């Protein structure tokens, strides 16, 4: 190994990573204690467990591969390797300047915080941006998402209500409201306690189709009622109970919950409820207590970074891809979509291509998307938005419920190379941009004087739902989801359950783009994915 | 990394090196293509292999596989799995690549043929006779006598291996054995080699060697813990406990055996019984010894998977000296019960790791797994460590094994908790 001088930033990065890696190893190795010099194999790890560890770490936004783990089989070696291969990690785990309620607010603001608020924090830039868009669009459905499913178990209303209350106690986001006017800055208030907004409908009929119909009706009607972000909680829950099973829908404001968090909330809720049905008490894993505070601190640090601002400006500073300046502003109304699926065998080959190229499936899908954009627009230089995870690097970050996403610009030129090479470049971009990924989109936009991208790519693999398999005595089925972000053209690449391939949905605003044109993109993307998958072996 | 990437085609199945070890060991030698048979094990490990290279299913026919491998234009065709030794030699020969010749591969994987060659060369006179049905027994008995060992002609891991000390035992065993076997199952009856009393060590050892056209080099003599009835192998240690004079006899016999068998390529693993008349060959295997790379990488910084890759690429790598740094290093396997059962729990792994001299423990079987029972060597785990000498190694294991408890549930509804010490007969509690 080469002699290298490590910068203080690398050392900090390695230290934070050590804590994070130890926590994930421990979880995947049955909860045992993990010290930095423990060998992964010596603790009982094998390559299949290693795969799960790598997926968890990728989910935390750490761009790494199985090879990295097996080549560096102790936490200390792996952390050193990762810290050195990534320019700098956000130092979110650094202790804050002050402790106590409202410590991050101005002293003048602090005295205004109501007594029954447990913690008051500045709102994040993305939260403020989303709320602002919702207000100006007047569209009650914007960033108002609903997720629903059927649980095969008896419904006991009082136990379910208890479970929901405990769920709110666990996750501050479910007790949060926003105040954009009273204070010198926009503030999120985490209330000490909330009464969960649960409504229940009983159906004597055991036909699940009827239950499903009722719950979807609630969802449709509910979506037309905006969620008042100034009053906690910013979610509501509805149950349609039938003999032997019940349908649940949770509607929420995106400002408090992202896609991954939805999964966490549902897994915890069902875990708590199932335990109550058994007459036991459940102890789902505890999210870090000051997670949101650390996130806000890291965001502050990043907003002040000229390096981060410069990095993103370079990424975005290219001719807009689809829309002329001022053609599009604020929130789009992406109500139409073009959908297609990638079947299991093509999907498996995509995975194999990604692995052989030493990248992730996400990087390969992103490469195929940029290739499709280039073919579609005839441009050799394209910019796309990419949805990225901004969870702080710390143990238990995946247990945090909140809004830990960002959408950032990725610029590619020289798109003529082979797809595996393009995927490696996407992977390299992910590593390079890692330290800056929580930099507020609004800042990038404001420096550029226009939206930094016209197209957004969103890779979704919510394997948190796999945890549902470990909830004893509860089976779930018939999942569905509704949601509407503000982007005019958004490509969702969703990894389906094991072996089922993936679904691709291209949501667009019909006022800005014709269906035929969107179909054209979809065909290019499908062709690029097929090419990336290669011939069947 | 070199400009022109080379391609290594690895025939993979359950064997001496794991998919992850192979990926790590070969990564800097070139692009890996894993060729896999349609076994559940290979399917299970497919996602791991895909992280290191392409995964291509074998076709099932010789012509199909040759065409398949030709299409890959590999620079090496190799394996670390006993089951794949013959197929690998066939494919490598078809492509003109370095490997065992098909003839050598057939001999090292066929115990009858191997005995014949060794006998003809005057290397080892162990009596043996093939056994294709219970009706063959009288002739086998005439040729071999009693006590004898009955084992399959092909395959490892002490599967379906039994000792027979009198005629009544043979009469009882043979119909059952053939009834439970595949229609084309072939066994061999061999003179049962009686070991010299060696407790607390095993009365057999193995020799790990590298064969090249220039000759045979021995990497190490591996000491063994005593067999668990009937022939289950519970672990290895390096260096062995043998005095220099015996070591020389052992390695000299191994060299003669490898020469007689015509092995001129690759890693081999030769097992020898320590008898009152000196060492005798148990069998020669034409592949890496199981688990050994786990130790050499950690202790000696030598990756035997990589060494195997270089040999298959036709290179003449420097054969490493294994430096054990004056310590004794061991691998120990807890055995599954011989009765069919389900593993329901494992307790005490953390406590085992805290024992001085123990470095790690890795379960091979997770709770919920069904265990088929039987006399095959079926490890539940591997426990490994390093100690100052052989006595402290035995002491570390004596302290560690009682702390590790496995819980099994049996088809009759009963549940039993057994310590690793009980499961491996190393404590009085064994029943």
Strand order of the largest sheet of chain A: 8-14-13-11-9-10
- Rg of chain B, alpha carbons: 21 Å
Query: What name goes with the CATH superfamily of the largest domain in chain A?
Result: Nonribosomal peptide synthetase, condensation domain
Q: Class of the largest domain in chain B, according to the CATH hierarchy?
A: Alpha Beta
Q: What's the rounded overall pLDDT mean of chain A?
A: 85
Number of helices of chain A: 16
Low-confidence stretches of chain A: 1-12, 88-97
Q: Counting H and I runs of at least 4 residues, what is the number of helices of chain B?
A: 14
User: Using only CA atoms, what is the Rg of chain A?
Assistant: 23 Å
The N- to C-terminal Cα distance of chain B equals 56 Å
- Net shape of chain B: globular
Could you name the CATH class of the largest domain in chain A?
Alpha Beta
Average pLDDT of chain B works out at 91
Question: Largest beta sheet of chain B, briefly?
Answer: 8 strands, antiparallel
**The CATH topology of the largest domain in chain A:** Chloramphenicol Acetyltransferase
Entry summary:
The complex is a heterodimer of chains A (537) and B (431). Helix content of chain A is 40%, strand content 18%.
Provide structural commentary.
The complex is a heterodimer of chains A (537) and B (431). Chain A is an alpha+beta fold and 537 residues long. Chain A folds into three domains: 78 residues, ACP-like (Non-ribosomal Peptide Synthetase Peptidyl Carrier Protein, Chain A, Orthogonal Bundle), CATH 1.10.1200; 171 residues, Chloramphenicol Acetyltransferase (2-Layer Sandwich); 232 residues, Nonribosomal peptide synthetase, condensation domain (Chloramphenicol Acetyltransferase, 2-Layer Sandwich), CATH 3.30.559. Chain A has 16 helices and 14 strands. In chain A, helix 12 crosses helix 16 and helix 13 packs across helix 14. The N terminus of chain A is likely disordered. Chain B has four domains: 100 residues, Rossmann fold (3-Layer(aba) Sandwich); 65 residues, ATP-grasp fold, A domain (Dna Ligase, domain 1), CATH 3.30.1490.20; 117 residues, D-amino Acid Aminotransferase, Chain A, domain 1; 96 residues, Aldehyde Oxidoreductase, domain 3. In chain B, 32% of the residues lie in helices and 27% in strands. Chain B contains 14 helices and 20 strands. Chain B has an eight-stranded antiparallel β-sheet, with helices on both faces. In chain B, strands 3-2-1-4 form a four-stranded parallel β-sheet. In chain B, helix 3 crosses helix 4. The model of chain B has no long low-confidence stretch (mean pLDDT 91). At the A-B interface, helix 2, helix 3 and helix 12 of A face helix 1, helix 2, strand 3, helix 12 and strand 16 of B.
